[in-house]
Write a structure and sequence with these properties.
- By secondary structure, the chain is of the alpha+beta class.
- The protein has 15 helices and 23 strands.
- Strand 22 and strand 23 form a beta hairpin.
- The longest helix is centred in the C-terminal third of the chain and has 25 residues.
Length: about 500
């Protein structure tokens, strides 16, 4: 079904790039085409039906050569589309698409999902107009045998989205259940099932190249099963419908899907296939020449420009790997390894950031591997922000990214938070527990706050490391005024840089 010819047609190009977008029907079937009241000159290849009852009276249809508005039949050649859609009067009003012949009016669409789908559809059409003929599916399959299994077993199911097709608005929410991947060791997300009723992507299933992870509407009940633990799968039934039982040598886990129940059979097929492989063959290595994430391309270029100046040449690659970890934490959710969360900061920088926000620790302990820091959350009567305001340490840094991001979470009363810090392969690692009564426990609410608050600090600290080098004391680094940091980075980026795999 998904074999792609060396020379892609427009329909094949749309199919590969729009896989998993539930709002867009690629190659709509005869029963759907019969509902169209638009006189078409050639074959329809993509349909966006914006009606509640699938009547095809509102939305757009794309043929091999043109885009048509369903309610009035107006059309515009695909080759003329250059930009859009734009809705200058708001999403509830009509908008326009820029074309070489001027604006082409498109109707208002009824849902955020439909508006996002039209945006994505036109992005792909414009890329085609600019000469792109790449297939994300082909490069995806070339990554390894686990990716090939995803293509064969999972992607034919319309409820399964390949990771490149997850739109930005869903990706932000999906971080809640895609987090925990081992980014530093190259683990990569491959596909996702959005189980939410309204498409919010707050919970569901994520398939990586090493494990399957699922999260229900109860965030406390999350399950991760590495593929090398699999001993088999079986099916059953429950009040929710069909159930998939995932067997390991330690336990049997139950996977139920309601909104996306038709994905149960493909997931069972995929996991059953993996269980037939030897345990050490149930993963795939990342591409050796994998480029950094696009969101840190400017920082990577600046780091390269500092090579031999503020940063020793041998440390540039390490810094770019840390930047890439930062971007993956932001994009997919914070990475984890061996039960600890991954941070791109050095241990010294992470310690500084925590102390700047939470104040001086109540106690410190070092056992030769892990540094333990205990902080009081109720200091000064105003939570963590009071600790910062009582000290000049870090004020310049936190004026840039904000402060006071750790507070006493809802649920059991937590007055003391304990961090365990370690050096990691790409930065550092931390575990966090809250003191409830006389026992330190894991608090997902507290972990969420730490994760969200650290992201801005980590990006700003790494920008400052790029600007001023790796040997500056963290307290001095955090004290530089924001204007000084910006000016220095502008000066660094203005330097000529020899193109490398890090900056292309």
């Amino acid at each position: 079904m998904y074999r792609t010819a060396p020379s892609l047609s427009l329909g094949e190009y749309l199919r590969d790039h729009l896989l998993g977008n539930k709002a867009i029907e690629v190659f709509p079937g005869p029963e759907r085409v019969q509902k169209l009241r638009v006189p078409l000159q050639d074959r329809p290849v993509a349909l966006l039906d914006d009606t509640a009852f699938r009547s095809c009276k509102s939305g757009v249809v794309v043929t091999e050569s043109a885009l048509f508005v369903l309610y009035d039949g107006r059309g515009v050649p695909l080759a003329s589309i250059t930009d859009g859609p734009h809705f200058p009067q708001g999403p509830g009003s009509a908008g326009y698409v820029s074309t070489s012949a001027g604006p082409f009016v498109v109707p208002s669409l009824g849902t955020d999902e439909s508006r996002g789908a039209l945006q994505r559809l036109l992005e792909v059409v414009i890329a085609w107009n600019r000469g792109d003929r790449s297939s994300p599916l082909e490069s995806f399959k070339a990554a390894g045998h686990v990716s090939q299994g995803v293509v064969s077993c999972l992607l034919p199911c319309p409820k399964v989205m390949p990771i490149w097709a997850v739109p930005d608005d869903k990706r932000v929410n999906a971080r809640a259940f895609t987090r925990g991947m081992d980014h530093a060791a190259g683990e990569r997300a491959l596909a996702l099932v959005d189980e939410t009723t309204l498409g919010g992507c707050d919970y569901g299933v994520v398939v990586t190249d090493r494990q399957i992870h699922w999260r229900s509407d109860n965030p406390e009940k999350e399950i991760s099963v590495p593929y090398n633990w699999l001993s088999g799968v079986s099916k059953g039934s429950s009040v929710f419908g069909e159930t998939l039982y995932v067997h390991t040598h330690q336990a049997r886990h139950e996977l139920n899907l309601i909104t996306c129940s038709e994905a149960i059979a493909p997931l069972g097929h995929f996991l059953g296939w993996l269980a037939t492989l030897p345990p050490d063959g149930r993963w795939q290595a990342p591409a050796p020449d994998e480029p950094p994430m696009p969101s840190i391309v400017h920082e990577a270029r600046a780091a390269t420009a500092q090579s031999g100046r503020e940063i020793e040449p041998g440390h540039v690659d390490d810094l770019v790997r840390r930047l890439d970890l930062l971007a993956r934490n932001e994009h997919f959710g914070r990475g984890a390894r061996e039960g600890m969360w991954q941070s791109p900061l050095s241990l010294a920088d992470l310690r500084y950031a925590l102390c700047a926000v939470l104040g001086e620790p109540l106690q410190r302990h070092w056992d030769g591997v892990t540094e333990t820091l205990d902080f009081h959350l109720r200091r000064g009567g105003s939570g963590a922000g009071g600790a910062l305001l009582s000290s000049a340490v870090g004020i310049a840094l936190f004026a840039t990214v904000g402060f006071g991001w750790v507070s006493v979470p809802k649920g059991p009363t937590i007055s003391i938070v304990r961090f365990g810090l370690r050096e990691g392969p790409t930065g550092s690692a931390y575990a966090v527990h809250g003191l409830v009564g006389h026992q330190y426990v894991v608090s997902p609410a507290l972990e969420d706050q730490i994760d969200a608050g650290l992201a801005g600090l980590e990006r700003e600290m790494l920008r400052r490391r790029i600007a001023f080098g790796l040997t500056v004391d963290p307290r001095e680094l955090g004290a530089y005024p924001r204007e000084h940091v910006i000016a220095r980075l502008h000066e660094v980026l203005a330097r000529p840089v020899e193109p490398t795999s890090l900056t292309r």
